[in-house]
Amino acid sequence: MKRLSHTWVARGCAIACLALVQGAVAAPEPKDVPPLMVTKAGVPVKDVAAWEKVRRAELKEIFCENEYGWRPVERPDTLAFELAEPDKVMMDGKAIRKRVRVSWKGPLASQSFVFTAFIPVTAKARPAPGFILICNRPAAANIDPERVNKSEFWPAEEIVARGYAALAFWNGDVAPDDPKGKCSKGVHACWAKERTANSWGALSAWAWGASRVLDWVETEPLLDAKHFGVVGHSRGGKTALLAGALDTRFAMACVNDSGCSGAKLNHIQLPKSESIDRITKAFPHWFCLNYREFAGKEFEMDFDQHMLVALVAPRAVAIASASKDNWAGQRGEYASARLASTAWELYGKKGLVSSGFPKPGEARQEGMVSYHFRPGIHNLTLHDWNRYMDFADKLGWRE
Q1: CB contact at 8 A, 305 and 337
Q2: Is residue 356 classed exposed, middle or buried when 0-12, 13-18 and 19+ CB atoms within 10 A define those classes?
Q3: Residues near 375 by Cβ (< 8 Å), separated by ≥ 6?
Q4: Per-residue pLDDT tens digits of the chain, which is 399 residues long
Q5: Which CATH fold would you assign to the domain 34-394?
Q6: Which residue, 240, 170, 243, 207, is CA-closest to 388?
Q7: In the chain, which end has fewer C-beta atoms inside a 10 angstrom radius, N or C?
Q8: Buried b / exposed e along 202-230 (16+ C-beta atoms within 10 A)
Q9: 133: nearest Cα among 121, 115, 150, 146
Q10: What residue spans define the domains of the chain?
């Protein structure tokens, strides 16, 4: 047998090792994804009219019936706003703080919640665009209206410094984040005594709350209601995406590390990410009860989350993942952004413009679908906020 030289052995080992490495990190690809641009009747969607009159309504029905539940009401006739505290100039004279109570009456109960708004003083000359944060973390530590406690989760000072208004409310003030609560308290208790298979879950309730804040924004002369984004992280990211999909007044949905049942595609093999089975067992109150039927059947579903992303079109959507957040399924979030982009193309706009999955620290913001890949763990940070504001700048919100 001919003996190979040390050089050839070394090369062979190198090639073998490279093949192993490439195989280990080979990017998973979506599989058997249900088509976005085909109606239930099997008719291709080729123009905006077919999308808006037929397909969009079909998709909204699919998600409300099977995943998030149906709302009993949108804007209640009894909706009212009042100052919870007197206005206050803060942030070294750079911002006006408003504390507003939103209240309403349902057939069974009444409820209210308070949100905080920091508005740049420059808005006196020109109404300011802004962002509404759906805060799913402890309010005192993350959205402190007195700014004693400051957090990157809601960097209000930095947002105001860039010319945007910073608004926030705590999701638990609208509906409790309680897996054992069976959606029987908070806003749910205003309209129903018992939960049915397709009743709205907590995610839809929190998104509903964001829309009620936007109702107030439309009444405030200092704010530019036509240029407002809704922001959320993790369960709040799922909520922000749903809010943007259902309420066409939001100019942007900022969807941060939303994962399963948020922006992450289900029709893709990502063993390290959360599944429908896991999420519906741990957080059954987030969804309608019907959603549990899809546990373990991701590849059998005839709908997927790229369709929810597409419902934001032709408005803007900004999806973000973190490099160390495998639980959220980064590749699945990116896949949804890519697959949803055909909805924007119907309007003659660009969706996600990308040559491939980005490296940590990179952002893809050339179209109406933004995707950025932040280095680090599951969190909402100043890095994320700056990318969202960068995107709004590119869209001309402050021009």
Answers
A1: no
A2: exposed
A3: 322, 323, 324, 360, 361, 383
A4: 333 333 333 344 443 343 333 334 578 999 999 999 999 999 999 999 999 999 999 999 999 999 999 999 999 999 999 999 999 999 999 999 999 999 999 999 999 999 999 999 999 999 999 999 999 999 999 999 999 999 999 999 999 999 999 999 999 999 999 999 999 999 999 999 999 999 999 999 999 999 999 999 999 999 999 999 999 999 999 999 999 999 999 999 999 999 999 999 999 999 999 999 999 999 999 999 999 999 999 999 999 999 999 999 999 999 999 999 999 999 999 999 999 999 999 999 999 999 999 999 999 999 999 999 999 999 999 999 999 999 999 999 999
A5: Rossmann fold (3.40.50)
A6: 240
A7: N
A8: bbbbbbbbbbbbbbbbeebebbbbebbbb
A9: 115
A10: 34-394
Q: State the Cα–Cα distance between residues 357 and 332, nearest whole angstrom.
A: 11
Which residue, chain included where needed, has tokens 């109702």?
215
Q: Using CA atoms, how far apart are residues 116 and 366, in angstroms rounded to an integer?
A: 32
The size of the chain, in residues, is 399
**Block residue for tokens 């007195």:** 146
Neighbouring residues of 2: CB distance < 8 A, sequence distance ≥ 6: none
Q: Identify the CA nearest to 201 among candidates 138, 274, 280, 266.
A: 280
Contact 163, 227 (CB under 8 A): no
Encoded amino acid at 120, one letter: P
pTM: 0.93
